[in-house]
Amino acid sequence: MVIGTKNPSQLADFAKNIEVERSDRPQSPIVTIGEDAIAKGDIREVAPGPKVFTDDLAPVEDLIDRILLDYARKGGS
Fold it and tell me: Full-prediction pTM beyond 0.70?
């Protein structure tokens, strides 16, 4: 699971947020997954990069957009 934040954050913030989520919704899948990641130590921070790929901006979508535009520019043939 990848979790992004709007504001700068640290790994310690993740554990705090899982605690808050647990008090609000103890049966939430994010609580189960978050607690498991913390217990196993299977969590890491990734430094910000120049481009972040999300569901609405993925490399395959850029490629498909270019293919469709090229097809339309050639008159659909």
Answer: no
